[in-house]
Amino acid sequence: MSEPTVDDLAPPPAHPAWAGADPYTRALRTGHGPLYLRRADGWLLPLEVERWCARADAVDLEILGRCEGAVLDIGCGPGRLVAELAGQGRRVLGIDVSAAAVSRTTRLGGPALHRSVFEPLPAEGRWNTALLVDGNVGIGGDPRALLTRLADLLVQGGLLIVETLPMDIDERVRVHITDAHGALGTPFPWARTGTRALIRYAAGTGWSTVDQWTTGGRSFVALRSRSTRSSRSTKRSAEPAKRTAVISSQRARKPSAGKPVAIRYRRST
Prior knowledge:
By secondary structure, the protein is α/β, with parallel strands linked by helices.
């Protein structure tokens, strides 16, 4: 059975309430662009909304096949990777600062939280793999700060898979999300990072580069954390994370269209 789509689960009304929402929310609701990152000088970077809103493709499946143990997808967007892993019965959580992205992810059966990576998260120090794909190494506009934060989220020796730009670039900018009509979202800091720059930042923030590859026109780097951790954070992986993330069925299963996987979060003690 194919994965349910947002349109399958909740056909939009003739005059949807989100029609006046920001450009990113509208694009996720419709599943298509055009959508761009707009720099202050007017430069535009097209965003691949249709690919993000589709099912995981061959390149995505290759990435997911490299994942180990419990997976944290940072900036999960509309949730194709989280839904795919959940459908495989894998332990996974997506996080995103966009409520529309989190809503779409959970509708597809993928557990997700409306939260920034820089806020407290479930099972810190116990995730086995983290994903930074689709340009999400740009989150916060400071790759060094982001890599430092991720070292706190993974187990010692944990795996981080980062998608980088195929060119040699290291740029920090302030951008808006805009659409074909020129509507602008709220400005935010962003970074554009090539492979060489990413490896340089990784070496200075407690990561070892273990692999790099290009496939389907996309470039990736695999890193492993090597910083020393406290005994509390290294004793176990995220597998027993039921204290903070409880799957309603208490077991991994592929969700039906009517009953997406639901996760309840409560404060750890």
